[in-house]
Sequence to fold (201 residues):
Amino acid sequence: MAASLVDLLPRLADFLAREGFDGSAYDYRSATDRVVAVINFQPSDTSDWFYVNVGVQPLFIPTEAEAPADPATITEPQCVFRKRVDPSPSESWGWYYSTSTPDRLEPLLLGTLNGFVRPLMRIPGPLNEATVADFEQQPIHPVYGLRDGLNFLHWSRIATALGDPARGKEFAEAGLALCNRRTTLLIEPLQTASQAADDCA
Fold:
């Protein structure tokens, strides 16, 4: 049994270094000139386990905090695409502080890197390809994220920034159609994104 996350970090850091990530303590990053990915190990102060959080942020759109993305300092909660790596669907409480944990975690984390992080970091790739229709058959797309107004705002900005204002307009208008009384704060940004798409058309 490991005493804490600190005991596990050297091996996890070595694994991430082999996968192209650099960092220290709890945050590790890998960046291209257009996209950055963040792996965060979140310790629990009140239990015997920790969480593994993964984020991807295109550098050419605002973060979740509506700020420019700095690839050297961005944190996982600021990324517009995020995912948690759990041991299994029935073990969503996290990973135990155990010396055997890396043996279970590394294959699942590698799967997340290959199936989620690297596709979103590749341009051209999914960032150039996603459409509103991709969200119609499932409320949560395994790579593209939730079918909701906030995610559609991000996708609208991505599409317009990558030179596809028609797709940007489609996402903005679909996002507006999803807005309700609980998401009124999204209306103005989505309207702005729709207008930005028109201006680039």
